[in-house]
Structure formats: structure tokens, C-alpha cells
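Re: the 770-residue chain
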Amino acid sequence: MPSGDMLALINDSGRVVEWGHLAEELFGWSAEEAVGRTVTALMREAATDGERQRERFSETASVLVKPVLRGTSVVWQVLAAADATSGQDVAILKAMLAHSPVVVHVLDNQLRVVHTSTAGLEDAPVGHLLGKHFTKAYELADPEEEAAVAQRVLESGEPVVNRLVRRIRKADRPTRRIRSVSYFRLEDSRGDVAGLVTSAVDVTDRENAQNRLALLDTVRARVGHPLNVGTVCQELVEAVVPAFAGIADVEVVEDVIRGNEPPPVPVHRDVPLRRTAFQGHIAAGHPVGVVRPLPVGTPFSDVLSDLRPRLVSIEEDSSWLAADPARAEVIRRSGSHSLIVAPLALRGHALGVASFYRHQGQDPFGEEDIAVASAVCSHAALCIDNARQFMREWVIAQTVRRRLLPQPPATHATIDVSQLHLPAPQGGGAWYDAIALPGARTALIVGDVAGQGIAAAITMGLLRTAVHTLAALDLQPDDLLARLSDTAANLVAARATLPPTDPLSREPLTAGCAIAIYDPVELTCTIARAGLPEPVAARPDGTSVDLPVPPGPPLAETGNAPFPTTTVDLPEGSTLAMGTAALADAVLAPSGPLRPFLDSAGTRPLPDLRDDIAHALPDGNRTGETLLLLARTKALPQDRVLTLALPAGPEAAPIARAAARHQLDVWGVDEETAFTTELIVSELVGNAVRYGAPPLQLRLIFERMLTCEVSDTAASAPQVKHARTIDETGRGLFIIASLADQWGTRYQAQGKTVWAEQPTGVSTERQNGA
């Protein structure tokens, strides 16, 4: 007889409720004769029926009896079994079901519990579970989802293995258990779906341990990349919520945020802390940025006294809540029931406090969570201290920069200047200058030192000082850049001599600079650049053009490559734009998205043009600092300039003195200044006649200073001589140096110009009205 064929169904009182066709053939009783009778009566009658019945019993040497569910009642199904299970096998199965950590549940095809092992059942006796839908028998966190999974296995036959299922939290079970559940479809010998077999293993401890390790990996990967205390703290709370806590709060000692040394432990009760980060479903009443000392008598102040983390159960009558009413109100509204307070500390110094809360719907913290919180805070404390040290250096660097940059921007009568400077978050070495030169000219300078921090700021200051010193020599842009490059090369050589332990010895020096000298008399601009983008000129007619300035090598670069210069015409009202490499693609390039702002510069006020460009700059990361210098040119009025060609003979001096005397009278210069100017003109012209080469030219410029210039085509340099008392010549330049505020020589492509400057000798109001 095939194994698995059903013989009969017997209810819990021992009466037959179903009698199969196979049973009719085997026992000889029809279904009408057997149904309703007890098994005992049937067996007694069969025993008295003689040899014929014993032969029939031998055909069913073994049967299998198992419970099945009918409605809400359990009945016993009698099946034919080819091989009866031995008593030893039954004992083994019973032992496994009773003591194995794997809980086995048998569900019928309606997903009702028909059998379950006793191992691991902490909720209710087995009898209370039988007949119930499995989602009602076991309190699951998501019963709908589990019912759907079980139904899919029942329909498809595809098993689901090692699915994590969570139980709901209850008052008598505060910690939610996690089980690894597997579903397998159960079929009878005919292939009909009989139900499911599910197995469940408690993996709460394993999952919690894995979650803690994953949390630590997340914190190490996500926290501490930006060197900013506030950002590090915000990264910390975002990494632990909701993976570890429902709410996270970080408070840092105010001095630490400012870059100062953290206080030693125990921290004085009056030391203020700033709330630097908060993450959770309640933020009102707990704003970031609040600065206050921590109230005494709370777990938070206690942590700062001994740097020992604390696990605190939050009760309504907790005494420490009364010491901090503002925090107590937030805790009450959040429904928090468990708290860990951990120190942010390094080398026995307190940086701050981190607080982790769990609220309704979350398991309370356990002792093992204290170690996790301590490990998280140890990593965060190291990152905060790194950010603190960087912040200290950044503050110093920014202070140095502010001292070294122009304060305030110089004003020039022949040019308007406006600058856009967006410092990099870590600081940098970009700078600009507008230096007044003799002859009403102006030197426009943009420089950029690669790097960040104090080293870049100090290097920038050294180069800027060198530029000012060299500009006083009235050098051409190419010569000025060459000497500035020599200065940078000396700085590189000095770094090379530093000991290997000095970080500056391993930091390269890379710098660029662009210099433009604008002449308001000739309306020209002479430009040279080293490592910076090509400048742009916006014409008054609303067009812009890239100025063809050949690129020179970066400063301090080895080799003898020159710094080519270009002289271009700049009509009055033109706008010259010079900037660092960060603006090359966006603003200065012909196809740059912000180039139309320069095209339409026209006569717009420079501050408005600068603001428009600043607002339109993309927010993405830019390489280096953003610095843009805008200069609007003006022409020096013709009535402020006297230009006179001179003969090459001795008569040149009297002619020059007479022309100068007349022009000074027109300008309203006082007698003393006029007398000094005549003497200077006489000596300059006499020197040019004696040592120079024709043609000669005199030019007087009346602007913020009164400038006398005499030009000739000789390349020889004038030198001051200290004549003896009996000498009749040799005192010309000595006299000029004594009378003028400053004097010098400027070389052109052909020849030179010797100049001398002195105050105008008229009031500012009269000079502006001249």
C-alpha cells in the first residue's frame, strides 16, 4: 500500500469523523458503518473477526498518525506508512523540538498554527497558539508584510531563508527581539499544498553586535573630513541618528570652537559650551548656537568632571531634570526614555559633551551601548581637535591677510578701482594692489600664492611688500616681474635650508602675478603676466576684447624665460578686468558663462558690476581663491599737462624755465613751490643737455603731485655726485634729490625719463577746481 494514503480522521474524543476508501477495502467496513463509532469499538470488533482481519492488518504493518486542524479543532489523521518510525526516532525528534534553539512552527494552508515546538516560546503555552493565524499568534512588528511573504511561499513554493523579523516592544518586554525566519512549503504525497514549515532562530545579540560595528565604520568613514568644528559635529549627529539613537546633541567648549586650547578636567562650572549640532525629530526649544555653562548637578556637567560616560534612565521624577528646565522640556516632548552622555575628550582635556537619546519605539540603551558611544566620541574628539588646530591657524592666517591687504583701498584721480575677493574656506594667498606711480600713472597688480593657511598668507605678504618696494623704483612691468620672481626664488631657497622636520620645507612655492601700468596722459596700458589668465578690456562702446599679453612663467620658476610686455590703447571709460585662475573659465574666457557681464560693462558703476558677477558665480568648488580686479580708466585733463619739445643746446634751460613759470602761474602754484620747480626744471634740463641725447622733452603734470619730467634718447643712467666746494659742476642731481620729495629714472624702449615729484603748493579745493 502506498505510503501517505489517508485511512481515517479521528476527533479528539476518539470517534471516526471520516473513513476513506482504502480503509473500506482494508477493514471491510463501509463509511456509513465506521463514521461515528469509536476507535476502541472498531478495534475490539476487528480482534474478534478471526484470521481474515489479521491478514488485512498485516498489509498495513505501520501507520502514521498526525494532528491536523479542522476549523478550530484538532483532529488526528491516520495515514498508511511504508516504514513506521521507531521509538528511538520519535524520542530524537521530541528532544530536538523541545530543546533545539531553532523554533519550528507548522502552518496549514490558511497559515494557521497546527504545531509548534516548545523551545524559545516565552509568550504563551502551545495550546493558546494552535488554531490562530500566525501573525496573531506571534506579535510581529510588521504583520502585514510577514503574511504577504508567507503567502508568496505558499503559492510559489519558493522558500525564503534567513529573513530578519522583529517583534514589537511591550511593557514587560522593553527590548525587541530579532529572529532569523525561514519559510518552506509543505506538500503531501499527492503534491497537494498542506501548509508551511517555518523555523526561527533568535539573532538579537548577533544583529546588535553587527549594527554596532557598522555604526563605528560609518562614523570613521563620514566624520572628520572637513576641518571645521561645526561641520564635524553635524556629521557626527547625522551618522548616529537613527542608526544608534533617535536624538543626538553635541555641545562643544566655546574656546575650542575659537581654536584655543581645551580646558583640563575637571572643567570649571562657569566654562561656556556652544550647542554645535542637533539631530532628531524635535528641534524647537533646542536651537543650535546657544552658548551657556552646563547646569550643575546634571549628567552633562558630571561627565565634564571625570570624563566618564553615563547611562541614564529618564524618569519623570529624575532630580537632575529640575536643574535644566529647558532641556527637560525637550526631553518630555520627545518621549525619550533612555540617555547616554559621553565626553568629547583628548589627553585629559575636555572638548565637549555628546548626548544620545532613545525615545518611544526604540529599545533602551544597554551597558554594551556605552562602549559604542565612547568609541564614537573618541573618534569625533580627535576630528574636533584637528579642526580646532586648523581653526586656530586659519584665524591667524586671516588676521595676517587682513593686515597685509590694502586697508582701505587707495583712491586715484585717474582710475576707479573695485575688487571682488572670495577667500577660499581654508584661506589662501591671493592679493591685489593699486599703486600710484609718478606722472599720474597707476600700477594695477593681481597676485596669487598657491596653498593655504599661515604659510600662504606670509608668503603673500612678503611678495606684496617686494612689489611695493620695486614699484617705487618706477620699473616697467616686465622688469618688475623679473625682480619679483628673483625674490620668490630666494624664498624657495630659504625653504630648502629648513630642517626636514619643518612642514614648510616640504611645501612647494607656486605663485603668479599680473601687472598693468596705466598712463592717463597717453591713454595706454602696459601689461605683463606670470602664471595668471589673460586680462580683458571692456570698451566704452559695450564690447570686450582679450588683451594679447603673452604668458610668462610662474614666479620662482627655474630658467631665464622672459616676461613679455604688451602696450595697448585704453580709451577713457574702458574697464580693465584682471583675475586669478579661479575666474579664468567662468568670467575671463571668451566663451565663459559670465563673460557677458564684462561685455555690457559700459558706464555701469563698478560696485554694481562686481556684485552682479559675485551673485552669478557658481557655488561649486573652485580651485584656488577667487579674486577679480576691475579698473575704470579716466583721462588726465589736457589743461593739467604741459608738454614742450626742447632744443639740444644751452638755450634749452631758459626756455624750459620760462614755460614752467608761466604754467605754474596758470595752475595757481604758490611762489615758493614755483621757485623750487624752476630750479628742478633747470637742473633736469641742464643734465639732459650735458649728458643726454636729442630730442629732449619737458613735461609738467599737475595732479595729486606736481611732477617734472625730462626725456632724452640716451640710455646712460644719471648718478648723484657729491661735488667739492671748489667744483663748479656736478651738483645737479644732488640739488634735485634735496628739493624733491622723490625722484627717479624710468627707461623706455628708446631712451629714458628723469622725473622729480613735489607737493602741488595749492589747496585741495583749488586743485580740484583747476
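Residues 386 and 437 are 46 Å apart (CA to CA).
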